[in-house]
From TrEMBL:
Keywords: Amino-acid transport, Signal, Transport. Residues 31-371 form the Leucine-binding protein domain. One of its GO terms (biological process) is amino acid transport. PANTHER family: AMINO ACID BINDING PROTEIN (PTHR47151:SF2), LEU/ILE/VAL-BINDING ABC TRANSPORTER SUBUNIT (PTHR47151). It comes from Cupriavidus lacunae. Belongs to the leucine-binding protein family. PROSITE patterns: PROKAR_LIPOPROTEIN. This is Branched-chain amino acid ABC transporter substrate-binding protein. Residues 1-27 form the signal peptide.
Length: 382
């Protein structure tokens, strides 16, 4: 009798534990958000900026105790280091697919995004780009790719028209870093300059690892260029600006996106004064929710964001809202809700065109005045 009672107790306890485990499993839904970005190397600060934008949105969402399909959803950040390397980026993409992420918010580099996006598309995982701007990313016929930032067609195209029509550039020079982003941005700039009736006096290039630019700048000076458009990233742009000043050049420096940040100011030092750069969207501080975002970001991370954290934050909330609307964390079931997005974010109104690009994108020209980036003008398609 005692033996039977013991077996009954064990059976009852086992059933209770199994029931508890099942309730725990069905009671909470874990939703992984993949974040591929450079977390080491020269672009690590910008990669961390993207990651922190996603992290802030995830923490806020979890604090709201959002329910999906009747269950408490817990959003988890699954971050991987793509090292700004296309080969590593593809490996990182496959890891995130293997991890079972529901959606991806990335990349920083267009050259990494182009091949990696195909991995996610094959797995049916949606990708929302907060930083990669090469137009080709969203023109591969993929229905799971979205972007909440202006493309190079908008940003660098606007820069080209402005250089001719407003800045009255007569002898315009261009230079890029030979990456997918750099070459794409310069191509769009050149097309816009030509379309506005301007001329490119000289075209130079470097690579994204270079730190010495005397040969290119000497050629640009010899061509008597009055404006140099550089398509590359912040650190190199700052080094180029410093070298221009050392060579006594009076050529106006104008940068592509990814340059108007504190990294440029710190590296260029006094040589930064007067430099210009075109960035994506409107100045965050001028938008309805912008000041609040700046304050809570600074409070959470102890520093100001760079350029892309607001876009990464918005991209994350766009994904979370699509999951809520579809009442499902299965990629195939919420991707249609992503396509139909109508969201008022930190960076402005977010809706997608048939290619997955942002409708009505804007670009802002900044100039360094008194050691700060100051907005000059904002131009958009609205």
């Amino acid at each position: 009798m005692i033996h039977f009672a013991g077996r009954l107790l064990v059976t009852s306890l086992s059933a209770l534990l199994l029931s508890f485990a099942c309730n725990q499993s069905y009671g909470q839904l874990v939703v992984k958000i993949g974040v591929p970005s450079p977390l080491t190397g020269i672009n690590a600060a910008n990669g961390k900026d993207i990651e922190n934008g996603v992290r802030l949105a995830v923490e806020e969402a979890n604090a709201q105790r959002i329910k999906v399909d009747g269950r408490d959803a817990r959003f988890e950040l699954d971050s991987v280091d793509d090292q700004s390397d296309p080969r590593i980026g593809v490996q990182a993409a496959q890891k995130l697919v293997d991890d079972g992420v529901a959606v991806v918010v990335g990349y920083y580099n267009s050259g990494v995004a182009l091949p990696s996006t195909l991995i996610f598309a094959s797995a049916g995982v949606p990708v929302i780009h907060p930083a990669a701007t090469n137009p080709a990313i969203t023109h591969q016929g993929l229905k799971t790719v979205f972007r909440i930032i202006a493309t190079d067609t908008q940003n660098s195209g606007t820069a080209g028209k402005y250089a001719v029509n407003v800045m009255k550039g007569q002898r315009i020079a261009v230079m890029d870093d030979r990456t997918a982003f750099g070459q794409g941005a310069v191509d769009e700039f050149k097309k816009a300059v030509t379309g506005a009736g301007g001329k490119i006096a000289i075209a130079e290039y470097t690579n994204d690892k270079a730190v010495e630019f005397s040969a290119q700048l000497t050629n640009i000076r010899a061509a008597n260029a009055d404006l140099l458009f550089f398509a590359g990233l912040d650190n190199q742009a700052a080094l180029i600006t410093k070298r221009m000043r050392e060579l006594g050049m009076r050529t106006q420096f104008v940068g592509s996106g990814g340059i108007a940040d504190s990294i440029f100011l710190n590296v260029a030092g006094p040589a930064a004064e007067g430099a210009m750069a075109w960035e994506y969207g409107r100045p965050v501080e001028t938008l309805p929710q912008g000041k609040a975002f700046v304050q809570k970001f600074r409070k959470r991370f102890g520093a100001d964001s760079l350029i892309y954290a607001p876009f990464a934050y918005d991209a994350t909330w766009v994904a979370i809202n699509a999951i809520k609307q579809a009442n499902s964390a299965k990629s195939a079931e919420f991707v249609s809700a992503l396509r139909a997005t109508q969201y008022e974010g930190i960076t402005g109104k977010i809706a997608f065109d048939p290619n997955g690009d942002l409708k009505n994108p804007t670009s802002t020209l900044y100039q360094v005045k008194g050691g700060r980036w100051v907005p000059v003008t904002t131009i958009g398609t609205e």
